[in-house]
Specification:
One of its GO terms (biological process) is regulation of Rab protein signal transduction. The chain contains 26 helices and 18 strands. With about 800 residues, it is α+β, with helices and mostly antiparallel strands. The strands form 5 sheets. Strands 1, 2, 3, 4, 5 and 6 form a 6-stranded antiparallel sheet that branches. It has a 5-stranded mixed sheet with strand order 10-11-9-12-13, sandwiched between helices. A 3-stranded mixed sheet has the order 8-7-18.
Length: about 800
């Protein structure tokens, strides 16, 4: 990382948040997609003796483990409006006086956090508040959508490690007359200024759907002409006023699904009327002090709040891959990445990230920004993104977009900066909501791109993942065709000229004709053997043999023989898994026949079964999908760099001397490596070999000479390279042909074992308060005394009588606005 990048990354870290890291995966082993038994609303299945033994093991593990690396969560934080300080404008949100008071951002504050502090992760009040409520403190009325929304966020420390946060933003009714009066006064001032014509330019923004009028009171009333303006008006005599509040978990490992379920259900467990249940403090104490992170290669069963206060807790299995043989943890679903963008756009985005372009994501949903950022960087394995990473960039930090360094950043769609920077020619700009990607000029083609896309599409179809197929490639007899929706598909090349719309965007006009350039495009894509053709309904994927370049025709029998050795090839029109040797067309695809799923079950039945999945079972299925897809990407890098270590230039000096001079030393023979690659792959490889990601991998390879514990990602990558050589011999020539991934089954077995054989079970939450409030009007501040110490539940109270989990105190109300 350059000095300038260090400065930018350091400033981002200081202004946002800092702490520890993680990354991950899972997928299918056997002929069927196995769904773990539903875990919703269950009690501990263990007998009293087994439960006692499990608790004893857990207590011993907690004593032996460093809490810095064993706790699930470091902090539970509540952010919102501080009634003591009142209403303050958010000075970091910029000049927003041209907006109505309901569209402005106000200053939020951490109202409480538990515990007060942990030594390995000092509490950063400003950073956490800024990311928990990235749009600032907002006010709404009953005319707005005020449903709770969840999002994750991440920050990067100077040492490259990440800290993760998970926030649920919801709206609560304001009953404080001073706050309601302040908003009413601000609105009166705003209306007066607009009526006087002092801000006519802002009126066109407020009233986007109707003609511009300077008669503001009338345009506020005509909801049919300007619904957005009507929503922006607050009538103090008729409307209810709501304000944003967030509850947040700060963690060092990104178990996003568990955090999301905890926060959403904790909010649902807020007692709004007297009834059965346990206190909010009991659930928070459990997640802070009793839920531990699983050790590598292990799994742990935890209990999360239920969807209703009177129900039992929900069991969830957390697992952690074994670093020596499995990909690191990824808890964000790749299923959604491909659903949001499609296969073509994902490959184009990956290419931009690998070549270390500036990448800007845009969406109206903060969680989408986070999912795309986390998923695309996880697909880089064994490489690691070393530059600025801020998948959610708060308004206060928009000036970092001007930094002339590689970055991956995400902006909310309402941000003005997102519209301004989207025209930059050197930027990769991704509009997630519109499934649109604007690519930098002269972007080279990813090696074996079309075969790569076909293999990915095969796995997505195996798991029946719904996605937009318009941009998936359709080649027939060497001509570029159209996808199901009419958009031009295929792979772009910087040398194709201005007609190639794929170089500038993956969202294309339907009238473009690419057939006249088919010969030139076909030469560039000559490694293609089988191609993807969407059916009119979009539900069936057909692999068509391509009339290959003469030098490439031998690929067809080679791949056919390979697949026959692995268990046969499905025939056209047959159900998934039907035994046949027809290679011309297959409804689901040839690549993952080894990993075939539910061979005997009709498609309609499988879809019906899929719809029955509970959120917990869908989570387990997403981990399987993650593993299958990530293994395909790793397989590409293994084939691409199977001989890389032969070109590493090892030093002949001591370790310290090499480290002090490594910036000036040549550590990799790039010219010789490129001369061994197919000519049509060199455009991409020559640029990637100059990247910081590749340089870091080579540095780690050299450092492994002196270190007893080499880099874990490098060890796994080298292990996969050795397996490939063992299959093909040391003299393999893998770069000229495409070989699909064959290891996803093997890597899935560890996940299935952890899912079915739990190593440790955490005690379900139990009541830790002697007396709890009967109900609340709003989410309350919690009892500090029990949440700032780890011994609150060491002697839990006796269990309540059946049907009465706990008895509320006589105090009917503890907190309200």
């Amino acid at each position: 990382m350059t000095t300038r990048e260090n400065v930018v990354s350091s400033r981002l870290s200081k202004l946002m948040l800092s702490s520890g890291s993680g990354n991950g995966s899972g997928n299918g082993s056997g002929p069927n997609i196995q769904v773990a038994p539903s875990s919703t609303l269950v009690q501990s299945p263990t007998s009293p003796g087994e439960q006692s033994q499990s608790q004893s093991e857990l207590n011993q593990l907690k004593r032996d483990a460093d809490p810095q690396f064993s706790r699930f969560a470091d902090y539970f934080v509540i952010c919102g409006l501080d009634l003591d300080t009142g209403l303050e404008p958010d000075r970091f949100a910029g000049d927003n006086l041209h907006c109505s008071p309901l569209d402005r951002a106000y200053k939020s504050k951490p109202l409480a956090h538990y515990p007060e502090n942990v030594p390995w992760n000092p509490f950063d009040a400003h950073g956490i508040c800024m990311l928990s409520l990235p749009q600032g403190l907002r006010f709404r009325t009953q005319k707005h959508c005020i449903e709770p929304r969840f999002h994750s966020f991440a920050t990067t420390r100077e040492d490259g490690k990440r800290c993760y946060g998970f926030s649920l933003v919801f709206y609560e009714e304001i009953r404080n007359r001073n706050i309601c009066g302040a908003i009413h006064t601000l609105q009166s001032m705003f209306i007066t200024e607009l009526s006087n014509g002092q801000q006519t330019h802002s009126l066109s923004r407020v009233k986007q759907d109707g003609p511009v009028s300077r008669s503001l009171p009338r345009h506020f009333k005509v909801a049919g002409q300007a619904p957005q303006s009507a929503q922006s008006y607050y009538d103090i005599n008729k409307d209810k006023l709501y304000v944003a509040k967030s509850i947040t978990l700060i963690c060092q490992a990104p178990y996003a699904f568990a955090a999301q379920m905890f926060l959403k259900n904790l909010y649902r467990c807020l007692p709004r009327q007297p009834g059965a249940g346990i206190s909010l403090e009991s659930y928070v104490y459990n997640i802070l002090y009793e839920v531990m992170l699983p050790q590598p290669g292990k799994s742990i069963r935890v209990y999360l709040p239920p969807t209703e206060p009177h129900l039992p807790p929900i069991a969830l299995i957390l697992q952690r891959p074994l670093l020596a043989t499995e990909l690191p943890l990824l808890d964000f679903p790749l299923r959604l990445l491909f659903k949001y963008l499609g296969v073509e756009c994902v490959i184009q985005l990956l290419t931009c990230v690998l070549l270390e372009n500036q990448v800007l994501l845009r969406s109206t949903d903060y969680q989408r920004l986070m999912i795309v950022g986390e998923c695309i960087t996880s697909l880089l394995f064994p490489f690691v993104w070393p530059h600025v990473y801020a998948p959610i960039l708060p308004a206060a930090l928009h000036h970092f977009l001007d930094a002339p360094v590689p970055f991956v950043m995400g902006l909310h769609a309402e941000c003005e900066a997102a519209h301004k920077i989207g025209s930059e020619a050197t930027l990769c700009f991704v509009d997630i909501d519109k499934k649109h990607i604007q690519l930098p000029e002269e972007l080279p083609v990813f090696p074996h791109k079309v075969d790569f896309m076909a293999e990915i599409g095969s796995v997505l179809d195996k798991f029946e993942i719904e996605r937009d197929r318009d941009q998936e490639p359709s080649f027939r007899n060497g001509y570029v065709g159209r996808g199901a929706g009419g958009g031009v598909s295929g792979s772009g090349s910087s040398g194709s000229g201005g007609v190639d719309a794929m170089i500038s965007s993956c969202t294309l006009p339907t009238g473009l004709q690419a057939a006249r350039r088919s010969k030139e495009r076909f030469q560039q894509m000559q490694e293609t053997v089988y191609t993807l053709s969407g059916s009119p309904g979009g539900g069936v994927v057909d692999y068509q043999p391509l009339i290959a370049h003469p030098s490439r025709i031998d690929h067809v029998p080679r791949i056919a023989d390979f697949l026959r050795r692995k268990g046969g090839i499905r025939g056209a029109g047959s159900p998934v898994g039907s035994p046949t040797v027809s290679l011309s067309s297959s409804p689901v695809g040839i690549y993952h026949d080894v990993d075939a799923v539910d061979a005997t079950m009709p498609v309609s039945t499988r879809r019906a079964e899929k719809q029955k999945l509970s959120p917990v079972d869908q989570y387990y299925q997403d981990l399987r999908i993650n593993n299958s897809v990530r293994e395909i990407f790793l397989n590409r890098f293994v084939h691409m760099f199977h001989a890389y270590e032969y070109f590493v230039i090892y030093p002949n000096q001591a370790r310290d001397e090499w480290i002090s001079n490594r910036e000036t030393l040549q550590n990799f023979d790039k010219s010789s490596f490129l001369s061994d690659q197919p000519e049509h792959h060199r455009a991409f490889l020559s640029r990637f070999l100059e990247s910081q990601m590749f340089a870091t991998l080579i540095d780690n390879k050299i450092l492994a000479m002196w270190e007893s514990q080499p880099d874990e990602q490098l060890q796994l990558f080298d292990q996969r390279v050795k397996l490939l050589r063992r299959r093909h011999g040391e003299n393999m020539i893998a770069a000229t042909s495409y070989e699909p991934c064959v290891l996803s089954q093997d890597s899935q077995q560890g996940f299935e074992k952890r899912l079915n054989c739990i190593d440790i079970e955490v005690t379900p939450p139990s009541e830790i308060l002697a007396n709890r409030a009967a109900y609340f009007r709003s989410f309350p501040l919690l009892e500090k005394g029990v949440l700032n110490q780890e011994c609150a539940s060491s002697s839990p109270p006796a269990p309540p009588p059946p049907g009465h989990p706990s008895t509320p105190s006589s105090n009917p109300l503890r907190s309200s606005h």
